[in-house]
Amino acid sequence: MASEDVKSSESAVSKIVNFAEEAKLAREEIKPTSHAVLSICKSLVAGGVAGGVSRTAVAPLERLKILLQVQNPHNIKYSGTVQGLKYIWRTEGFRGLFKGNGTNCARIVPNSAVKFFSYEQASKGILWLYREKTGNEDAELTPLLRLGAGACAGIIAMSATYPMDMVRGRLTVQTEKSPYQYRGMFHALATVLREEGPRALYKGWLPSVIGVIPYVGLNFAVYESLKDWLVKAKPFGLVEDSELGVITRLACGAAAGTVGQTVAYPFDVMRRRMQMVGWKDAASVVTGDGRSKAPLEYTGMIDAFRKTVRHEGFKALYKGLVPNSVKVVPSIAIAFVTYEQVKDLLGVEIRISD
């Protein structure tokens, strides 16, 4: 009897030990390795550096674009790219060209980090589903699937950092003559929360999300598809091996930025204008007869489109497109190339195309 009790106890202990070992193995399989965590951190750093470098390089054009988008048609100060940059230099000096860039970088660094990382993860998930559906283990992402992965990345990154983008727009628009001054990003966030409520931080979010789908989606899709085509087709003898040069990748990024921003630009204009709603000192002007004219109020995205086209014409949807085009071409190109270069420098094995 005692022998049976001992055997029973040993069997129970053995089961407990086996269960503990199985649980340990399961935890080890689920828990990411330190190498994987380090790789993720490096990828996020690369994306953040890419965003900061690319945006600072074109900060004057970014500010001019926003000023052109939101200026009142009854009081034109900025009539073009060259004239606008000269006017800012003359009235506000060198610092005026980079006004709002600190807040912009505070937004774009995490935005870019999340965007690039989200694209990588979305690409992996979509590719796995595609291979499972087709039964082809060697299948690769198509341009349409890359568009979907880029759209997912853009929505996630935009939503995560939108309040900072909203106050950055207001900081960029204000000048020394503005009746009310935001002292910085955190002061602007606190002021908007206090005076306009939490929902004000997401004014213009809908057109932003709708616009970011073709914008970021096309950026990634065009950039990756062009690179893939150049490597495989080797047109004009441009590529002799599987590694593209910096100049070639810059050209791919420039093409991607041009296509994406042209399609999505009207939504960006609506986003900026909706962000200014509720800020009484944003664009109030004095007309030619000396009367004060308040800025238009918008009840939503459709209303913003309708009133803009009615009062200013269809061309108003593309206000600031020229400086934006001049800005986007180098900005997107620099962002993609910087991202890949920093990842190479940090020793991250996974590239965007992988």
TrEMBL record:
Solcar repeats: 38-125, 141-229, 244-345
UniProt record, GO biological process: transmembrane transport
Annotated compartments: Mitochondrion inner membrane
TM ranges: none
Highest taxon of source: Eukaryota
Keywords: Membrane, Mitochondrion, Mitochondrion inner membrane, Repeat, Transmembrane, Transmembrane helix, Transport
Keyword Transport: yes
UniProt key word Transmembrane helix: yes
The name this protein goes by in its record: Mitochondrial adenine nucleotide transporter ADNT1
Source organism per UniProt: Coffea arabica (Arabian coffee)
Lineage, highest ranks first: Eukaryota, Viridiplantae, Streptophyta, Embryophyta, Tracheophyta
Gene name as annotated: LOC113733280
